[in-house]
């Protein structure tokens, strides 16, 4: 089969790769239909690492996957050949203290698609996954939407970590795909008012059209001052979706006493900090986000029922043969890209 390999900093190429297999008793073989390109893929592409996880070249990335079942293992009863699925890219052990506590996403023995030192990614024609990671999608759901289940499930989990936000006033700092998915989840949960920011004018415009109450660019305006003038008592929750020190600082200033900062953005630097005197005097809660803890199935149900509609996020389409152009577009924020989909198979 063919697979897209990172071969060096800012270099990706299509190569022949061995076919996956054999299929274990609790696993399935998938034909990859569509892979969404993620910001974490771009971290590996641009810098070769996220924190201590460094790429050893060549390496296949990609984890936002929609596929079709080709073969099932002997113990798999809930899936059958021909069935279309969305995939949770996490492989968990099921028996450590975290898994037994319902925290598969912090499994002590976890492996993740496209994560150096764990599992190669899904930018390839076929892949073997545990059946437990594969979730059927209705025939009415497109492959693009099925691939969006992965980031949308992070947005749903992020919103849930923000607590009961019905009628509340929140901020979302960063209007990339995860910020937009968080916005969609917040709106479905009955949020009151949502302030969003981004440093890219095209994303500011997109967020405005996607349902944000107010959007601003911190490079062009005093977003803390403007938001504070509109909500002088402060915000109940701020979701930091940019992975930037400046956004963390803005969040601390924007939050009301007793507010909650939910940090979901993945920074390219190893450390972020808060002005502890401000955070302490406001008695802020700071909550980190790790993936999508058991939110894949509810996300599929909400998308299928129409509670969520995020199809507008898919702005670009590429074939696997166009992988160089796809990474160049996403890594360099070209052409107003929000979410680029790589179409691997039919």
Examine the coordinates and then state which fold CATH places here, giving the name of the CATH topology of the largest domain: Quinone Oxidoreductase, Chain A, domain 1
Overall structural class, as computed from helix and strand content, comes to alpha/beta
* Main sheet properties: 7 strands, mixed
Low-confidence stretches: none
Which secondary structure elements does this structure contain, and how are they paired or packed?
Layout: E1 2-8, E2 11-16, E3 27-36, H1 39-47, E4 49-50, E5 53-54, E6 64-72, E7 84-87, E8 90-91, H2 97-100, E9 111-112, E10 126-130, E11 134-136, H3 143-161, E12 169-173, H4 177-188, E13 193-197, H5 201-210, E14 214-216, H6 223-230, E15 235-240, H7 245-254, E16 255-263, H8 276-281, E17 285-288, H9 296-305, E18 314-319, H10 323-331, E19 339-343
Parallel strand pairs: 12-13, 12-15, 13-14, 15-16, 16-17, 18-19
Antiparallel strand pairs: 1-2, 3-6, 3-10, 3-19, 4-5, 6-7, 7-11, 8-9
Helix pairs in contact: 3-4, 3-9, 6-7
Describe the structure.
By secondary structure, this protein is α/β, with parallel strands linked by helices. It has 2 domains: 2-136 and 310-343, Medium-chain alcohol dehydrogenases, catalytic domain (Quinone Oxidoreductase, Chain A, domain 1, Alpha-Beta Complex), CATH 3.90.180.10; 153-288, NAD(P)-binding Rossmann-like Domain (Rossmann fold), CATH 3.40.50.720. The protein is built from 10 helices and 19 strands. Helix 3 packs across helix 9 and helix 6 (223-230) packs parallel to helix 7 (245-254). The longest helix is centred in the middle third of the chain and has 19 residues, at 143-161. The two termini are 15 Å apart.
